[in-house]
Model the fold of this input.
Amino acid sequence: MTGQVVRKAVEPSARGLALLQDPTLNKGTAFTEKERDALGLRGLLPPHVLSQDEQVTRVLTNLRRLSDPLEKFIALNSLHDRNEALFFRVLCDNIDEMQPLVYTPTVGLACQKFGHIFQRPRGIFIGANDRGRVAEILRNWPYPAELIVVTDGERILGLGDLGANGMGIPVGKLSLYAACAGIHPKLCLPVTIDVGTNNETLLSDAYYVGLRQHRITGAPYDELIEEFITAAHEVFPGVLIQFEDFANHNAFRLLARYRNRICTFNDDIQGTAAVALAGIFSALRITGAKLAEQKILFLGAGEAATGIADLIVSAMVAQGLSQAAARERCWLVDSKGLVVKSRADITAHKVPYAHDHPPLADFLDAIKALKPTAIIGVAAVGGTFTPQVLEEMARLNERPIVFALSNPTSKAECDAEQAYRHTNGRALFACGSPFDPLQFNGKTFVPRQGNNSYIFPGVGLGAIVSRARHVTDDMFMAAAHALAHLVSEADLEQGSLFPALPRIREVSAHIAKAVAETAAKSGLAGKPAAPDMLKHIQAQMYDPRY
Ligand code: NAD
Done:
């Protein structure tokens, strides 16, 4: 990363109408009298000059008049297309209200309807037929990317294969990188690798934006990904590549293949792990118990579940347990029931957690048999933390840990009200999508999102400012600790296991510092550490104020 990485001043190079039509430079009615004269804008704008603050108020007033979240998403997207700085100012100053619109849950709906609400392209699409010219395509991107979020659209949130419509996810995640971690939007490149889709509804949808073909698999798929990785490094040397919403049969393989070769991570596996571990650290501050005493039962056995389990195991090992003993404390339930050694159908990522136990088909039976202290839902099947499940957890534990992490909201294992009601207000609860504060038994609970959006912006920022050669599990461990440290006693008092979202830029700066210091300690930093790393990072963060 060069000197002013993340912030990079944007000097207007365009004039007149071209300036107003360039969203990266446009300030609309906020261009001052002086700028209007100097930049050939006189007469092209209505006479009254508005401040950016006034523009923000106008945007919010118009947005709040809309009742449908998808309409709000479309309005925000249009603003992004017209005036990037104003879009990010609205996001930064109102992150509680805006994150659920630009990210989960609304982004899920936006991906499902992507072709129908499509207005202007954003990012780079690479198609299955683009073998041999991926570098040439990436060169069409006019900015110097330092961060790529890439998807192949096969497992969008818990919504399955949405093909090229999945582009909403890299776009949304990169908006959060800019808003939450201050990485300049010009350095962020969303990429969708369109290898086809097996979603027949999309294939027969006249407005579907992607290739009309089934997914390519095997060697042709791997060769396209390899060409993309090589080309990305040729065009944008040292770029950080975040894999996003790949199906688990590719996600684990690709992470294993590239993690020690380039600067990369998979947020679904590693980012989720760090946010869940931070949430557990917070819950244990309330119960006073030790991590090494926990028994954790996952509903789901995919990227999120095994990613979280692996990081919990590392944290337990750091507290003195052997790896085998730590693994014994993590159990998985997948679509076929409890993951046990005797099952013949266990895929590689589940093997460490396939323990000796009689098979059990049912999640509730698994709870009764194993007596977990925590249940973590990451199966993308809505409503699976039933009243019976929650009541049993409350019977077994004074303060049961209940994380319903599946997204979007329709896939949540339970909602906040159910979690508190069926545990008599004793659940230590976190959810993947947002839920409003609520009253139960005269107490106000403020459930906060156990969402990797607390983690990935800071991790990306830390990797970029330190010019890390790789992103390691130690960095995610450091990120989890940094996040947990920012949870106050007042947060815990109201049942919040994470800091308030409006603190996200402070959170991201602390996480970035922890990641950059870990990179330096492990010899993976491409730049010497700054004497005051936090200040150094904060000074570089993108600020969308004009
Ligand atoms: P994945 O496809 O890798 O894994 C899903 C797992 O669920 C698989 O192991 C599958 O066998 C299992 N499963 C399916 N049906 C089941 C059932 N009826 N009972 C038990 N298990 C069942 O997906 P993933 O990446 O692990 O994501 C899973 C969910 O977690 C998604 O909804 C995703 O949006 C959510 N997620 C949330 C966060 C967050 O930050 N909160 C982060 C990552 C993923």
